[in-house]
């Protein structure tokens, strides 16, 4: 059975608009989900800005939560189950998956903006429309691979669940999994959007000592303090590397959560000998950075890449949901303005301007 709903679609050459898109029924290994909330992420903005070139129409949206409405053959979920959609759907067969490092899966096709079989469940007037990062969550009904639908407790709010699909799993995972922060470690977080604030929550969870938050927005610096930053800096007026060396003797960890090469280049200068610079924000494709290689080698510093918080969605998303429900992660405070799909343009304008917390779209 085919269902048609409004969807936020990126069209090469003409930008973003709301269009009527049809979605087919799930096939073997697939799940149909009714979306209840979807987060507005900078990765979608990369598509709109042309940072990640795409020559096909895409249904945008890749962090979402909803309810299972139908399943294909061989799927162990049931109608009515509440799920978080994880954009990084691992293949489960490659050597990285076999080693328990699904975030490095070499068999996933999500980054190609297709389903695992190379196709799409969306169409408009008989022509394919493709799912951004294998999901395409800015619509009411989607069909996704089973590995992208993570069952969560029904008491988990949908808006919080949506953020577990990308921002929170990436940010908390960057601190806990990628960096392996230990109690008392010091850290600086550059960029306090949804992912940066989640990094701060992860640092608190790991027992970090001094947590320094850097952002141009006074509103977001205040949010960082709310989530546990011990000091906040305006990156426009403060020499952050010099501040870190003067006040901390260099941080143990420096996280960049924007994806801007000029900021990534500064990270190693923020850390002490033996410290680690962690690149969490996704830069434009092909972006290059210049690093003082002598300092890196001489001081034993590390430069770490962080994809999806070094997380395994099927394991980490339920764990993070439980931490929220147990009162250990204040994820509800991360939810910003909720808007209908028709106001997607406003939500992205606010994201560009650094206004508010994590925006939510609802169909």
Automatic annotation (TrEMBL):
PANTHER family according to UniProt: ALCOHOL DEHYDROGENASE (PTHR43880), ALCOHOL DEHYDROGENASE CLASS-3 (PTHR43880:SF12)
GO CC annotation:
cytosol
Query: In terms of domain of life, where is this protein from?
Result: Bacteria
Which one GO biological process term can you cite for this protein?
formaldehyde catabolic process
Which GO MF term does the entry hold, naming one? zinc ion binding
Q: Which Gene3D superfamilies match?
A: Medium-chain alcohol dehydrogenases, catalytic domain, NAD(P)-binding Rossmann-like Domain
Name this polypeptide is given? Alcohol dehydrogenase catalytic domain-containing protein
Question: Which key words tag this protein in UniProt?
Answer: Metal-binding, NAD, Oxidoreductase, Zinc
Which PROSITE patterns does this UniProt record tie to the protein? ADH_ZINC
Give a single Pfam family match.
Answer: ADH_zinc_N
UniProt KW Metal-binding keyword: yes
């Amino acid at each position: 059975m085919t269902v048609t709903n409004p969807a936020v679609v990126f069209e090469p050459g003409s930008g973003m608009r709301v269009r009527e898109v049809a979605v087919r029924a799930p096939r073997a290994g697939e799940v149909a989900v009714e979306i209840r909330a979807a987060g507005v992420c900078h990765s979608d903005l990369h598509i709109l800005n042309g940072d990640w070139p795409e020559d096909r129409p895409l249904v945008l949206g890749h962090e979402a939560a909803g309810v299972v409405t139908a399943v294909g053959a061989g799927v162990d979920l049931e109608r009515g189950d509440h799920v978080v959609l994880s954009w990084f759907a691992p293949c489960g067969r490659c050597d990285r998956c076999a080693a328990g490092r699904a975030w490095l899966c070499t068999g996933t096709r999500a980054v190609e903006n297709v389903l695992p079989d190379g196709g799409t469940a969306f169409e408009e007037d008989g022509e394919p429309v493709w799912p951004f990062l294998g999901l395409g969550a800015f619509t009411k009904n989607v069909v996704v691979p089973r590995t992208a639908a993570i069952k969560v407790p029904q008491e988990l709010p949908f808006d919080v669940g949506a953020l577990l699909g990308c921002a929170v799993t990436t940010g908390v995972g960057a601190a806990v999994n990628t960096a392996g922060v230990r109690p008392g470690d010091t850290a600086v977080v550059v960029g306090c959007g949804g992912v940066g604030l989640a990094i701060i929550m992860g640092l608190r969870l790991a027992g970090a000592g001094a947590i320094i938050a850097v952002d141009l927005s006074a509103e977001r610096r205040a949010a960082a303090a709310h989530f546990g930053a011990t000091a906040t800096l305006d990156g426009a007026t403060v020499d952050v590397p010099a501040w870190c060396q003067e006040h901390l003797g260099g941080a143990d960890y420096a996280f960049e959560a924007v994806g801007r090469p000029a900021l990534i280049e500064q990270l190693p200068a923020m850390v002490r000998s033996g410290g680690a610079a962690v690149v969490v924000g996704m830069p434009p494709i092909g972006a290059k950075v210049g690093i003082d290689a002598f300092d890196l080698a001489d001081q034993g510093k590390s430069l770490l890449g962080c994809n999806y918080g070094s997380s395994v969605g099927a394991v980490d998303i339920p764990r993070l949901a439980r931490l929220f429900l147990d009162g250990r992660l204040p994820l509800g405070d991360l939810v910003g303005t909720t808007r209908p799909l028709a106001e997607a343009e406003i939500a992205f304008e606010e994201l560009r301007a650094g206004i508010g917390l994590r925006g939510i779209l609802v169909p």
